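Researcher: Structure prediction, please.
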Amino acid sequence: MQSKLTAMSLSRRAVAGIFAVASMALFAAPAVAQTKVRVAIGDVLSTETLSMILALERAKEKGVDYQVTHFSKEDLAIQAVINGQADLGIGTPYAVIQKSKAPLRIVFQGTRLVFYPVADKSYKTWKDLNGQPFAFHARGTGTEAIGNIIAKREGIQFGDRSYVPGSENRIVGMMKGQIKATIVDLANKNVLMEKAGDKFHILPGMTNPASDETVFASTDWMSKNEKQVDTIITEFYRLWKEMAANPTIIETERAKRKLMADQPKQILDGITGFYTVGTKEGVFAPSGGSPEIAKADLEFYTEAGQLQGPASDLKVEDFWSFGPLERARKAVDG
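Model: Predicted structure follows.
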C-alpha cells in the first residue's frame, strides 16, 4: 500500500506544476464579484490533502462555497494570500508572518511535522554524521528545521547539504546509493524499511512535532467574513475529531462525494491505511491548536533558525487567532 502511495506522490508533484501555471492565469484574469472563498494550497488533491478538501466540502454543504487554487510550492500559496489573490491558505506561514509583517493569522493546526531521520547503517548514531552530507526537502522547510535542531542538540555540523524535493525521491536516491542520510515522511519511511531495511535504519527524531500544514488567513478578510471562517474551521475541527475516533471516515466521505475518482484502485484502497497510521502517529492532531501548541511552534522554528528570537520574546497573538477555533469547539462539543 505504501509503495502505491509513493508512486502517486511522484505523479502528483508533476501535476502540481501544471496547476501552478493555471493558477497564475487565473489570478491575472479581470476581477469579478467574489462568491466563493478562494483557497490557496501548495499541492494537488491527493491522499495527503484529501482530509482538508473534505473539510472544505462539508463547509460547502453548510453554505460556504469555495474554490481551490493549487500551487507547486507552498511559498507561492502563502504569497497569494498576502497579495489578496486568495482568502484562505494552507501551509506554514510563521517565517513569512515575521519577515514580511503581513497581517496573517493561523486559525487551525492541520498536520504536524511527523518525520523520520533515516541513514545508512554505517552511521550508527548522529555523532557519526558530523561533517557528513545530508539531504533535505528544500531550503527553509520542515525537514531542514528538524535537521538543524537535532544537529544543534547533538553538537554536530552537517557537511554538504543537498535539496531533493519529495520524500519519495529521497528514498529512491538512498536505494540508488546517491543519498546516505535524510529525513522523510511516515509513508516513505515505511517504504524504505520494507524495501531496504537491511541497509538503512531510523535515527532518533523529534519527540514533540511542531505544526506542519495550518489553515491561515489575513486578519482583514477574517474580520469581514467571520461567518464563513467559523463555518470552515468548525468543519475542520469536526472532521479531525471524527478522524481521531475512526480514521475510516475519510474514505467513507471521499466515496460519498466521488473525490479522486480518477485515481487507480490501489491508491483509493490505501486511503484508510494512510489515515489510520497517520492518526496513530500523531500527524493529525485532533485539538486544532492551542496557545501551548503555538508557543511550542515558536520555540521549534526559532531553534531551527526560521524565526528570529528569542522565542520567549515572540507573542502568540502575532501569529495565531484562536477565536474561530474556540467557536468551533463550542459548536461541536457544546
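Model: The radius of gyration is 20 Å.
Researcher: Thanks, that helps.
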